[in-house]
Design a protein that fits this description.
Layout (H helix, E strand, L loop, with lengths): L1 H24 L3 H29 L7 H23 L5 H16 L17 H31 L6 H34 L7 H21 L5 H25 L15
Helix pairs in contact: 1-2, 1-4, 2-3, 3-4, 3-5, 5-6, 5-8, 6-7, 6-8, 7-8
């Protein structure tokens, strides 16, 4: 049942992405609308999957690389849906759907067995720390998606009236992501002191989380100071995405440390 729900969500995300791209390319609003409703169905199935997995596991589904990736993808979908209904941001949907699908595709490559929560993760900080990280990364990914759309739009029509809105929401998404990443780092420090008697151990995951934080803090400094143009800041948001992905995937794969519970299964932030 778990696998059926998981892969159903993956297929629905893929179908939604294809329909939305086709609708955009051929300017068919009805196809785009169908794509959105298929995406909503995929988000509903993914929500059901995570809830069911949590019930089966008897804990929040956040304990390993697979579960974090599935939650990361779900976080992108949730924020994208909020932006659609709260601000009617249709211009971000195609790129956002693609990122939702790609992150969930990465999850599909990871071991999907339900395992017991490791002793090191049995803490009141577990859901708070890892949940804030998932939504932080989701915000940064959507900021990158908005940056891609900004660059495509400004190249096609530098006078497009939506450019100012795109620049504003890149900023808002990064501000949200940075706030959540700050919460992630601070809660992780408190948790680390409880678990390892040290607030900071220079573990690779800690270091790269800090690098990511500094990178986006520089963005906010430049954006609030209005030292750079919208195009520069859009490129910044796009180029920063690989750093987020390395913090999420690369560190666990290439730089094992206290956050890599390796063979037990691989742990994330």
């Amino acid at each position: 049942m778990l696998d059926i729900l998981f892969f159903s969500g993956l297929v629905l995300y893929f179908a939604a992405m294809v329909l939305t791209f086709v609708g955009m390319v051929f300017k068919k609003e009805k196809i785009t609308a169908v794509g959105w409703y298929v995406f909503l169905a995929g988000a509903a199935v993914s929500t059901a999957y995570l809830v069911y997995r949590g019930i089966v596991a008897g804990r929040l589904p956040l304990s390993n690389q697979f579960e974090f990736a599935a939650s990361f993808s779900w976080g992108i979908a949730v924020i994208l849906i909020f932006l659609h209904y709260r601000f009617q941001l249709d211009w971000i949907e195609a790129a956002g759907m693609a990122m939702t699908f790609l992150i969930l595709s990465y999850a599909a490559l990871q071991p999907r067995e339900v395992t017991e929560l490791m002793p090191a993760l049995r803490s009141a900080w577990f859901g708070f720390h890892i949940g804030s990280a998932a939504f932080s990364y989701a915000s940064f990914m959507l900021a990158g998606a908005a940056g891609i759309r900004y660059l495509l739009t400004v190249r096609k029509n530098p006078e497009d009236e939506r450019l100012e809105q795109m620049d504003y929401f890149i900023y808002r998404l990064i501000a949200l992501g940075l706030l959540l990443l700050t919460i992630t780092i601070l809660s992780g420090a408190i948790w680390a002191e409880e678990a390892w008697s040290s607030f900071w151990t220079w573990d690779p995951k800690e270091v790269w989380a800090l690098i990511t934080w500094i990178l986006y803090a520089i963005y906010l400094h430049l954006r609030l100071g209005r030292r750079k143009t919208g195009t520069f800041m859009a490129w910044y948001a796009v180029i920063a995405v690989p750093v987020v992905l390395f913090t999420f995937i690369g560190v666990n794969t290439l730089l094992p440390g206290l956050h890599s519970y390796g063979a037990l299964p691989p742990e994330v932030l």
